[in-house]
Amino acid sequence: MNKLDKHDDMTRLFKICIEREASDLHLIAGRPPVIRVGGTLVNIETSILKPADIETLIKKILNEEQKKYLQIDRELDLAVSIPGVSRFRANVHYQRGSMAAAFRALPSNMPRMEDLRVPEKALIELARRKSGLVLVTGPTGAGKTTTMASVIDFINSERKCHIITIEDPLEFLHSHNKAIIEQRELHEDTLSYSSALKHVLRQDPDVIMVGEMRDLETFSATMTAAETGHLVFSSLHTKDAIQTIDRIISVFPAHQQDQARVQLAGALEGIISQRLVSQSGENKLILAYEVLIATDAVRALIREGRTHLIPSTLESSSKYGMVSMDRSLVNLYKQGLITKEILFRNCIKTDYVKGLLNNREGSYSKVSN
Fold it and tell me: CA triplet 346, 347, 351: central angle to 5 degrees?
C-alpha cells in the first residue's frame, strides 16, 4: 500500500494511480483520495481530504486562464500531462459547495487497434472509407476516445490526407506521419464543437474527428460534413446501435425527423458500440463490442423508421463483419475471459444468450428478457 501525507502534491497521487494500474482517480471532500482498479473503487491510504486540501491540490495543476474559467462556469475539462508519469483527462467541478475532481489515466503510448481487443477488421475497413459517418458509442469510461485515437493513428500511418480533430480536451497527441494532422481543443483553439464544425469545411479536411456529438447544431453539422465527401468519426454516450440511431433522430425537432432519417441513412457507414466488463480471475476489464455496418438493408430500416428490426438484421449479417453485443459477450465467455455471471449481468437478451450457449440460433428480435 502506498502511503502519502495529505500535503503531497498531485504528482504523487498520479504516480500511485499508475503504479496501481488504476483507471481513475477521484478527489472528494470527506474521503481520502479514491482510485478505480479493475472497476472497483479503492481508498488510497492517507488522511481524509478537506475542501481546502482539494482546492490546494487542484489549483497547482491549473493555469490562470483555467482558474478563471472554473470560477465562472463551475466546471472545467482539461488534460494534464505529468512528465515521466502519464497524461490524464480531468474534470474539475463543485459539489456541496466544495471543489472535486475526477481524473482518467490515459495510455502513455499511442493506442494500437491490435492491442485494444477492438473489432480490428471492421475498424480498418471503416477507416479506409473515403467519406461517411463512423460512430463509436458506449457509456462513460468504455474507451471510446481510445478507440477513435487508434483509428486516427492508423489513418495517419497509411494515408496522405489532412486530418482535423476537435476535442474536449486533447487526450492523445498525434504527430504528423503520412497525413498532416491538426488537433483543436475546445476553449483553447475554438469556442465550441458547433463553431469549429461551422468553419472546418473551409480548412480542406479529408478526415474529421469530433470528440462528442452533444447538441442539435453539432449533430447536424457532423452529418452534413459526412455526406459532403468527408470521413467523419464521432462518439455518443449510447449503449448500442439502435439507441444511437434513435438518439440522433430524437435530437431533431419533430418536423425535421423524417429528413434526419434520410440524411443519417445516407451518411452512416458504421457504429461500434463498446462496453468494458470484468475479466475472469483478474482485477482488470475487457472490451465487449457490437458492430453495425450500414448495408443497404440497414439504411432502408433507418429511412423507414423501423430501427426495432435492426438487431435481427445485425445477427444475420456476420458475413459483413457485424456482431451483436450479446454474441460478443458469449464469445468472451467461451474463450474463458469472462464468467457466466458477468455474461448474464451484461447481456441484452437473456433467452437469446441461453440459446447461443446451447448452440441454438434463434430470432433475436423475438426474444425478450
Answer: 145
Report the Cα 45 to chain-centroid distance in Å.
31
Q: Compute the distance between CA of residue 186 and CA of residue 169 in angstroms, rounded to an integer.
A: 7
**Percent of the chain at pLDDT above 90?**
80
Residue 241, burial from CB neighbour count under 10 angstroms (0-12, 13-18, 19+): buried
Residue whose grid cell is 473489432? 119
Biggest CA–CA distance in the chain, Å, is 62
DSSP tally for the chain: helices H, then strands E: 15, 13
- The alpha carbon of 4 is separated from its chain's Cα centroid by a whole number of angstroms, namely 32
Q: 334 with 324: CB under 8 angstroms?
A: no
Domains in the chain, please, with CATH? 10-106 (3.30.450.90), 113-366 (3.40.50.300)
| Contact call for residues 291 and 126 (beta carbons, < 8 A) | no
Q: Please, which residues bridge with residue 290 across strands?
A: 273
Burial of residue 93, with CB atoms counted within 10 A of its CB: 0-12 exposed, 13-18 middle, 19 or more buried: middle
All three cell numbers of 349, joined, read 437478451
Cβ atoms of residues 123 and 256 within 8 Å: no
Please state, in angstroms and rounded to a whole number, the distance separating the CA atoms of residues 118 and 359.
24
Q: Cβ(364)–Cβ(349) under 8 Å?
A: yes
Burial grade of 243 (CB within 10 A; 0-12, 13-18, 19 or more) = middle
- Cα separation, 142 vs 134, whole angstroms: 17
Cα 272 versus chain centre, distance: 10
| Percent of the chain's residues with pLDDT above 70 | 95
Compute the distance between CA of residue 262 and CA of residue 279 in angstroms, rounded to an integer.
40
pLDDT tens-place string over residues 25-65: 999 999 999 999 988 999 998 889 999 999 999 998 999 99
For residues 125-142, average pLDDT: 95
- Where do the H-state alpha helices sit in the chain? 10-19, 51-59, 64-73, 113-116, 120-127, 144-158, 193-200, 216-227, 241-251, 257-267, 296-303, 310-315, 325-334, 340-346, 350-357
Q: How far apart are CA 273 and CA 269, in angstroms?
A: 14
